[in-house]
Specification:
- The protein contains 13 helices and 14 strands.
- The chain is of the alpha+beta class.
- The protein is elongated and about 85 Å long.
- The N and C termini lie far apart (67 Å).
Length: 368
C-alpha cells in the first residue's frame, strides 16, 4: 500500500482523468464510457480495465470526484465504481469500493484551488471512521455524517464499502464558520427519528438522480436543501425558538430583496426562492406570519410605491408609466387592483393629490 497525493484540481466532480501526467478522456479505449443520451454526469468503473491499471485509475477517479487529498488504496484494487449526477447546484454521488484511507491536510487545503464543498454522506455498507474539527466518529451502515472539504479531515474505510452522498457548495446550507465546525463529524444514526427519515430518502435520491425531468430535479434540489437545513438544526442542537429566529431573519432579508427588485416584472415567488436557494413551499411558509402570500406581498409593495409616486403627480410620468416602472405589465390590471386597494382609480388619487382617506380594510380587499 502506498500514499498518493493528488494534485489540486480545478473543482470536484469533473469528467476527465489524468493518466501518466497527461489528460485522459473517459473515451480512451479500454476505459468505461458514458453513452450519449444516458444519465447526465460522470461514471467511473474499474471493471473493464486490466488489473494492473485499476489502482491508478481508481485513485484518479476518487480525486476527481472529491478533490485534492492524500489517499491510500490497496496495491490491488479489485473493483470500484463512482457515479456522479447533477441535481441543481448539488451533485449526487454513489461510490462502491474496497479499502480506502483519505487524508486532507491543512497544506493540501491551502494548495487546492477548488471551490470548498460540504459533503453529506450516507454509509450504506461497511464501516468507517471520520476525524474533523477535533472530533472522531465511528460509523456503521445507515449512519449519515457531514464533512467540510475546506478544512483538514481524515476518513478511513477499512473494508469494502458503499456510500451515497450529496456534494454541495458551502453557502447552500447558510451555516456560519462556527456552526459548520459544530456540525461536522457528528453522525446521525438511522435509529433516530430524523435519521430514519433521511437515510432512505437520501439513498433513493442518489439512486434516482438523473432520471427526473430538469424542472423536477430543480424542485427536488430545493426540497433537499430544506431537509438538510433540518439535519443541520439537529446536529447543532437548535431549539424551535432558534429556528423561528433564523426564519424571521431570512424573511426580513427576502422582504428587503423584494423591495430592491420591485421594478422587475419577472420578480416572482419562483425567482425569489431560486435566488435564496430555498424551496417554493418553504418561501410560502415564511410568509404565513405576514397574513399574505408572496405574490400578494409583492403586489402590495408595488401598489404602495405607485401610490406614493402618484401623490407627487407621478413626477411628470403618465399613470401607465408609473405602473410599468414598479413592475406592473398591464395598465388595466394595475387600475383594477389599485381601485380595490384604495377605493378610487389611480387617476382620481393623483388628481386629489393623495388626499382621499385610506384605511387598512381597503388593503384587505386585495388579500393583503
Amino acid at each position: 500500500m502506498s500514499l498518493y497525493s493528488s494534485r489540486p484540481k480545478p473543482g470536484p466532480l469533473s469528467a476527465t482523468l489524468r493518466a501518466g501526467g497527461k489528460e485522459a478522456d473517459l473515451l480512451t479505449p479500454g476505459a468505461p464510457v458514458r453513452k450519449e443520451g444516458s444519465v447526465p454526469g460522470s461514471f467511473y468503473t474499474t471493471d473493464a480495465l486490466p488489473i494492473h491499471r485499476r489502482r491508478a485509475y481508481w485513485r484518479e477517479a476518487l480525486a476527481q470526484t472529491f478533490g485534492a487529498v492524500d489517499m491510500a488504496v490497496p496495491d490491488e484494487v479489485y473493483s470500484g465504481t463512482i457515479r456522479t449526477t447533477p441535481l441543481g447546484r448539488l451533485q449526487a454521488v454513489a461510490v462502491d469500493g474496497d479499502y480506502l484511507s483519505v487524508l486532507r491536510t491543512r497544506r493540501v487545503v491551502a494548495q487546492s484551488h477548488a471551490e470548498a464543498h460540504v459533503v453529506v454522506k450516507l454509509l450504506e455498507r461497511g464501516v468507517a471512521r471520520l476525524e474533523q474539527d477535533g472530533r472522531e466518529a465511528l460509523l456503521g451502515p445507515g449512519d449519515i455524517f457531514v464533512y467540510d472539504t475546506a478544512r483538514a479531515l481524515r476518513l478511513n474505510f477499512p473494508q469494502a464499502f458503499r456510500t451515497k452522498s450529496l456534494v454541495l457548495p458551502r453557502d447552500v446550507l447558510g451555516l456560519s464558520e462556527s456552526e459548520m465546525t459544530r456540525a461536522t463529524a457528528s453522525p446521525l444514526g438511522s435509529h433516530t427519528p430524523l435519521g430514519g427519515l433521511l437515510s432512505p430518502f437520501l439513498a433513493g435520491l442518489v439512486d434516482g438522480a438523473g432520471t427526473f425531468p430538469h424542472r423536477t430535479s430543480e424542485l427536488m434540489a430545493h426540497n433537499v436543501v430544506d431537509l438538510l437545513g433540518v439535519l443541520a438544526d439537529q446536529l447543532l442542537g437548535r431549539t424551535s425558538e432558534d429556528t423561528r429566529g433564523a426564519n424571521r431573519a431570512l424573511l426580513l432579508r427576502i422582504q428587503a430583496f423584494i423591495d430592491r427588485h420591485l421594478e422587475d416584472p419577472d420578480l416572482t415567488p419562483h425567482a425569489i426562492a431560486r435566488d435564496h436557494r430555498i424551496s417554493l413551499r418553504y418561501l410560502h411558509k415564511l410568509f404565513e406570519t405576514e397574513d399574505a402570500t408572496v405574490g400578494r406581498w409583492i403586489q402590495r409593495r408595488r401598489l404602495e410605491e405607485c401610490r406614493r409616486e402618484l401623490a407627487r403627480h407621478g413626477n411628470g410620468r403618465t399613470i401607465s408609466a408609473v405602473a410599468h416602472r414598479w413592475g406592473f405589465t398591464s395598465a388595466a390590471h394595475f387600475s383594477r387592483v389599485f381601485r380595490a386597494a384604495y377605493g378610487m382609480s389611480p387617476r382620481d388619487w393623483r388628481d386629489t393629490k393623495g388626499s382621499a382617506p385610506y384605511t387598512p380594510s381597503l388593503m384587505r380587499a386585495i388579500g393583503a
